[in-house]
Amino acid sequence: MTSLGASLASLLSSGDVVRLEGPLGAGKTVFARGLIRALTSEGEEVPSPTFALVQVYDTKAGPLWHMDLYRLEDEDEIVDLGFEEAQDDAICLIEWPSRAESYMPDNALTVKIAVDASDASRRQVTLTAIAGHEAAWRERLATMDAGQVKGSE
Amino acid sequence: MNDTITILGIETSCDETAAAVLRRHGDGTTEILSNIIHTQDDHAAFGGVVPEIAARAHVEKADQVVTRALEEAGMTDGGIDAVAATSGPGLIGGVMVGMMTAKAYALSRAIPFIPVNHLEGHALSARLTEDCPFPYLLLLVSGGHTQLLRVDGVGRYARLGTTIDDAAGEAFDKTAKLLGLGQPGGPKVQAAAETGDATRFDLPRPLLKRPGYDFSFSGLKTAVRLAAEELAPLSDQDIADICASFQRAAAKHLAARTERAMTDFEIPAGDTGRLVIAGGVAANTEIRAALTALVDSKGWTLLVPPSKYCTDNAAMIALAGAEHLVAEGAPPLAETLALAPRARWPLDENPEGRRHGGGKKGPKA
């Protein structure tokens, strides 16, 4: 999960929104940690964003917002977090994006992490994009390390 | 500076809005003149439930709590020598409001504004009410933080370990959520665990063989999910057993890592070891029992501030501000007015020049 996050990191740039979906304990934060460390440093502290809601990092690819909407009560609260401004110049990694579904942009990439039904130690990761943005993401994802992509599509 | 100083403290970095007035005498003793916390309910012990995201909600409450703190302290007509406010780490919207409120007050009265690291407030909180000389080992366990710190004096902190993933309080909240217990997670899990069998589930012991003093709660959370899924639909007894097993595992993990830090802690000759616990999770009876047993076995002293000073509060922020004011003198107002809030701010990042660490890198959010 960590290395998959790191592979995705290399093709992200300002303005990208990545939705991280999956049940509690599936590995969303682990994925995010791999991604953030690939863009900062191996030793970068990446705490769970659940409590503070947003953790902002200065990365090689510009600012990165690691958000967790788990504690949002009302989806309009995402405006108060500064999400709309963040999309102008930051990469946004969003855990529990469905808590503010109507604010999620159409061109977001969804990373869905599912726990394997027969082996709880295995994860299935599916990358999807909304029709119309799929081709663009497919093209970008093609540049990812082939071995990683194979295991994740 | 050996005179008595009276300081207003403001804390808005988490889910509460709080203000307090503290008086520090020339001999170092302190008096809490008022300590006001505005919270949605009295369940905030484990880090709060509903985050106060909207800045406007904080603005309204900040004014109210400051007014009440000044009224209760009998200081509405002046007499405040300085104002301190949490400037990070935390929810940035809240921190911003607390800082703005403090800056406005400082500016209007021409008194110093002292930015305080929220974690430093916790680090010193035991000294509000306890006889707690330096050095001591601090275990901070809350909804947002799980850290072990060595505290050698005001401004002299060394972080020994921290959670590498979730905070302890977050693990309690998420366990409660997984089991459908509702919020607040900490008290709900503790209540359910009372009738449970803590030995029924063999949950992992995080970082058991790992050197150092870091914590990890993410694996426990996953193990709880797996146990719950395997047994679904869950009976009340299943839930009680999972809660008891989880709570036991969390307590053992906290105690095991703390024990490592105690073993390696250098105690000055002739002194005894002191362990201070701060943060809302310290209210959990199983965790407290595990730490009490640990401290007893080592011949150390355990200090736990009363829960109103253990959880987020403004008295501890006022204390940290007062100690810095005494130790370093008043920072130029123009300098501290320019500081921006910081979402992340490790306590030992810049131990020699804490004040300058506040805004050098600019806002983190």
UniProtKB/TrEMBL annotation, chain B:
<keyword id="KW-0012">Acyltransferase</keyword>
<dbReference type="GO" id="GO:0002949">
    <property type="term" value="P:tRNA threonylcarbamoyladenosine modification"/>
</dbReference>
<feature type="region of interest" description="Disordered">
    <location>
        <begin position="342"/>
        <end position="365"/>
    </location>
</feature>
<feature type="domain" description="Gcp-like">
    <location>
        <begin position="31"/>
        <end position="318"/>
    </location>
</feature>
<feature type="binding site">
    <location>
        <position position="284"/>
    </location>
    <ligand>
        <name>substrate</name>
    </ligand>
</feature>
<feature type="compositionally biased region" description="Basic residues">
    <location>
        <begin position="356"/>
        <end position="365"/>
    </location>
</feature>
<feature type="binding site">
    <location>
        <position position="312"/>
    </location>
    <ligand>
        <name>Fe cation</name>
    </ligand>
</feature>
<dbReference type="InterPro" id="IPR017861">
    <property type="entry name" value="KAE1/TsaD"/>
</dbReference>
<feature type="binding site">
    <location>
        <position position="118"/>
    </location>
    <ligand>
        <name>Fe cation</name>
    </ligand>
</feature>
<feature type="binding site">
    <location>
        <position position="173"/>
    </location>
    <ligand>
        <name>substrate</name>
    </ligand>
</feature>
<dbReference type="InterPro" id="IPR000905">
    <property type="entry name" value="Gcp-like_dom"/>
</dbReference>
<keyword id="KW-0819">tRNA processing</keyword>
<dbReference type="InterPro" id="IPR043129">
    <property type="entry name" value="ATPase_NBD"/>
</dbReference>
<keyword id="KW-0808">Transferase</keyword>
<keyword id="KW-0408">Iron</keyword>
<feature type="binding site">
    <location>
        <position position="186"/>
    </location>
    <ligand>
        <name>substrate</name>
    </ligand>
</feature>
<feature type="binding site">
    <location>
        <begin position="140"/>
        <end position="144"/>
    </location>
    <ligand>
        <name>substrate</name>
    </ligand>
</feature>
<feature type="binding site">
    <location>
        <position position="122"/>
    </location>
    <ligand>
        <name>Fe cation</name>
    </ligand>
</feature>
<protein>
    <recommendedName>
        <fullName>tRNA N6-adenosine threonylcarbamoyltransferase</fullName>
        <ecNumber>2.3.1.234</ecNumber>
    </recommendedName>
</protein>
<comment type="similarity">
    <text>Belongs to the KAE1 / TsaD family.</text>
</comment>
<dbReference type="InterPro" id="IPR022450">
    <property type="entry name" value="TsaD"/>
</dbReference>
<dbReference type="GO" id="GO:0005737">
    <property type="term" value="C:cytoplasm"/>
</dbReference>
<dbReference type="GO" id="GO:0061711">
    <property type="term" value="F:tRNA N(6)-L-threonylcarbamoyladenine synthase activity"/>
</dbReference>
<dbReference type="GO" id="GO:0005506">
    <property type="term" value="F:iron ion binding"/>
</dbReference>
<comment type="function">
    <text>Required for the formation of a threonylcarbamoyl group on adenosine at position 37 (t(6)A37) in tRNAs that read codons beginning with adenine. Is involved in the transfer of the threonylcarbamoyl moiety of threonylcarbamoyl-AMP (TC-AMP) to the N6 group of A37, together with TsaE and TsaB. TsaD likely plays a direct catalytic role in this reaction.</text>
</comment>
<dbReference type="Pfam" id="PF00814">
    <property type="entry name" value="TsaD"/>
</dbReference>
<keyword id="KW-0963">Cytoplasm</keyword>
<feature type="compositionally biased region" description="Basic and acidic residues">
    <location>
        <begin position="345"/>
        <end position="355"/>
    </location>
</feature>
<keyword id="KW-0479">Metal-binding</keyword>
